[in-house]
Amino acid sequence: MSNILIEANNINKVYDPDLYLKRGKNFYALNNVTFTLEEADFTCIMGPSGSGKSTLLNCLSTLDRISSGELRFMENDVSAMSKDQLCEFRYQYLGFVFQNHNLIPYLSLFDNIATPAILAKEDPKKLEERIKQLANDLEITDLLNKFPHECSGGECQRAAIAHALINDPKILFCDEPTGNLDSKNSHKVLNILSKLNQQGTTILLVTHDAMIASYAKKMMYLYDGGIQSVVYKKQDSQLDFYKKINAITMQDSLLKELSTKKSETEVIQETPVEPQPIQPSSKRVSVYMIIDGQPYDKDIAKNNTLFHIDGTKVSFINQYNDPVGFDLSTISQINLDLTAQFVNFGLFSQYIFYPKVDFVSEEGTYLFKAKNKDDFIQIINLFHQLQIPVNDPRQIEEAYHKYPRDYERSKLYLRTHKDLTQYKG
């Protein structure tokens, strides 16, 4: 079984959606975020106020629904779950620690910690043993009979961590867990989280403090709803990791303030010039395909991972935010197919169809989903120019020639490919 717990592929969160742009552009709180969280990871999310940190945490933890993209949790499609299923899922696998400890004021710390397990009718003796063990680990054993107002902020926050851990969650989501604490208590809480991570707990933490982030194994820096930089600790000391994080946050903030709006050339230059080769994978990657020197949709390019074709060289950013690529001259065949994605925009909810493009080579098959709309026909034409055989059982190329507008093709696909829109349970 895969050790990937969360896999987000080109997820977007749009507030106040305006499909027909009558009032102007939509506000993207999250803009084309691709993210992977594996077991025993300790990942920190940073960024300035309004960058989308808490929104990303809420979407990844299923507290909020994404507007588009793919979000899978332990290989389960989150968008296919009902409210009741999501509640059960959170209870079984997720723990939450917020900036405010959110303890119930009229319950003791013992009862606050026990609440989730009591609701699940856990065995009282086993529950008491579990609480005492957590209290001992978090150094609050002598406080279990006290009420929140009788404890310090740091003590309440440690009780909140115990509350989050009582059901032994797969992932601990922490949103500014030290925001209301002084320096001494902040570091005490982070030392506890580090110890939990070393014992196998996966942690995803949001903070604005580089020193707090230095306790993690990886830092992602968000700006305007998108991932701008990723820094890995690897074998660095905590102090060296802190310096790297501090350099990235200060540099990105300054550059964003001083830079002008990206030009068409700058958008293309975001794709690496000399990517590392990749191995064929069973994981399908969502990309927007563009050909060097050919026109493309700037808005779609801005909101998606670029799949840049320069001659026969292909380069893009994978789910780990690493620059990778391959050469089209190694491809023996291309298989085209369709996939349908239901986009929830309330009254204007609809299915959107995307081509699936599988590049077959001697090493294996590279799997992609193309976010292209009206311009995908030029990609197919390039495959023909390179004399790569194209297997197209759903006659996608014919549909693009016959119905050049995306709206018309979508209506055709709804009529002719009903198997893609049938409810799968």
From TrEMBL:
One GO term describing the cellular component: membrane protein complex
TM region positions: none
GO-annotated molecular function: ATP binding; ATP hydrolysis activity; transmembrane transporter activity
Alphabetical list of SMART domains matching this protein: AAA
Ranges of residues in domain ABC transporter: 6-249
InterPro entries from the UniProt entry: AAA+_ATPase (IPR003593), ABC_transporter-like_ATP-bd (IPR003439), MacB-like_ATP-bd (IPR017911), P-loop_NTPase (IPR027417)
A Pfam family assignment: ABC_tran
Highest taxon of source: Bacteria
Keyword Metal-binding found: no
Keywords tagged on the record: ATP-binding, Lipoprotein, Nucleotide-binding, Transport
Family indicated by similarity: Belongs to the ABC transporter superfamily.
Protein name: ABC-type lipoprotein export system ATPase subunit
Organism whose genome encodes this protein: Longibaculum muris
